[in-house]
Amino acid sequence: MKLTRRDALLLTAGAAITASLPLPALAATPEDIDADIAAFTGGADVKEGGVEITAPEIAENGNTVPVEVSAPGATSILLLAAGNPNPGVATFNFGPLSAASEAKTRIRLAGTQDLIAVAKMADGSFAMSKRSVKVTIGGCGG
Amino acid sequence: MRQLFAIAAAAGFIAASAQAGPGPDEDQLEIDGLKIVTEVKAPDDHPLDVIYSGWRFRTDETQSLQMDDFENPAMVAVEYGIELWDTPAGTSNKSCADCHGDVEDMAGLKAITPKWDEAAGAPLTLEDLVNRSIKEHQGGEGWKWESAEMLAMTALIGMQSRGMPVNVQSDGPMADWVEKGKDLYYTRVGQLDMSCANCHEDNNGQYIRADHLSQGNTNGFPTYRFKWQGLGSLHRRFSGCMKNIRAQPFKRGSDEFTALEIYLATRGAGLGVESPSVRN
Amino acid sequence: MAKVKPRVKVPKKAEVGEVITIKTLISHPMESGQRKDKKTGDLIPRKIINKFVASFEGQEVVNVDVDPAVSANPYFQFDMKFPGAGTMKFEWTDDDGSVYTAEKKIKVG
User: Which residues from B are below 8 Å from A107, CB to CB?
Assistant: First the structure.
């Protein structure tokens, strides 16, 4: 049996010591996310799908989560972490010698959340995909 | 989040979770063609049936970072170690290389440390050996246990033994130290009243909340931990474990931690050295 | 880490037109500006690599705007279509204005 966050919270609620729990950093609001996307697209329409985000379904530690973004034909890709205090992660701009519009990096995630990738295609259109990553909070390892 | 764990553990949740669960996985560790033993059938008098490296308890993503020396983020430290190895220092203005030659000649050392030292009348860890050499031969001050320099050097020297079986002496003058380490391993301490064995012997393979408990083997240190966002020593890990159970940790380099290091090395004998490994 | 050190992995040689994978890593704490000093309680000022650029013979391959959410010891991997012998240049820009660089030659073969 896994001890879930809910179990732990239920357990602590009775003990009336929840006040001592550390508050998680405030996550970005949907407005923050929309603003970041709008800054990237200039307010243009964004088509759903077409960007591939490769990331673990469950990350063992939020400090180092391997992520790959790929959008064939894109000139740049904006990567956002919707649940971080600041959603911006990176913007990859692909130059003339780039072979495939894809890049791999390692990122920090403040908790379980959605990754959002927005690609600017060569024809000026935009595409967007989302992917959820669960971040485990370990007893000792995390 | 540590608070949550502490509360849950205190409430006996670890005991409650001690049911059949996912143990180590079946993956095999190979780094650039070098196969490393991560599984050893335990001898008859061993408390476990099979000894597994901590690598086997990690997710595929974490595992893969150790399977390629470029992907392994500890390798920047190893490169720094090479620089230190070749740089003259101290009043003698000699480098490690001036006396020891190629660092590859250090192959095998990590697998047998801590090792008994007749002159000191005590076992010496790899960190002790490095500092003794700096003080006696270079005329230097020695490095702090958890300094970037010490971690880089122990990672570099440790790496030369990669794949060799852990084989620390347990008889003769080392027997007392093994016993002392074993006592520490089984002694419940801290506000949570837990011993090393409660997690790593009784419940390895289980989850503490979402963390997959390993057997607590030491063959990969120094280790690059995501949590630390850097390299850290085995004694730092001990210290973290003790804090988790609300105990006052011993000091790095203390006799207690050295004894525990020796006991754990004998307990994990036969596993391949993985230094510098990658963990969560 | 005591020092900021870049590491790059590129093939020594490639066929013209071949797609090659480039891996880069630089030792850097990527201090996010969100962490507090445990002793004083003060926020530790942000200090990150905010830009990474890889180019080959003056032509850009990738140019990355980096935010604090990229992990300590930033790692970037990408592909390049090899145009012919030349030198690959890598540049990491720090918040403090420092620029760390690395270079690798790639031959045809």
Answer: none
Length in residues, chain A = 142
Query: With an 8 Å Cβ cutoff, are C2 and B148 in contact?
Result: yes
Q: What number is the ipTM of this complex?
A: 0.94
- CA-CA distance, B42 to B215, in Å (whole number)? 13
Contact at CB, A2 and B11, closer than 8 angstroms: no
Active site residue B241: yes
In degrees and rounded to multiples of 5, residue B34 shows phi and psi of -90, 115
Instruction: Pinpoint the alpha helices (H) of A25-115.
Output: 30-41
The dihedral through the CA atoms of B84, B88, B92, B96 has a sign that is positive
pTM, to two decimals: 0.87
How close is the nearest chain C Cα to the Cα of B174, in Å? 34
Using one digit for the tens of pLDDT, what is the confidence trace for B98-144?
999 999 999 999 999 999 999 999 999 999 999 999 999 999 999 99
- Coil, strand or helix at C44: coil
Structural domains of chain B, ranges and CATH numbers in brackets: 2-72+164-279 (1.10.760.10), 75-159 (1.10.760.10)
- Domain C5-33+46-108 has what CATH class? mainly beta
Q: What are the residue ranges spanned by the domains of chain C?
A: 5-33+46-108
B12 to chain A: closest CA residue: A11
How many Cβ pairs closer than 8 A exist between chain A and B? 106
Nearest to B76 among C1, C30, C71 (CB): C1
The CA angle B98-B272-B31, to the nearest 5 degrees, is 80
Give the domains, in start order, of chain A with CATH numbers: 25-133 (2.60.40.2470)
Burial of residue B232 (CB within 10 Å: 0-12, 13-18, 19+) is: buried
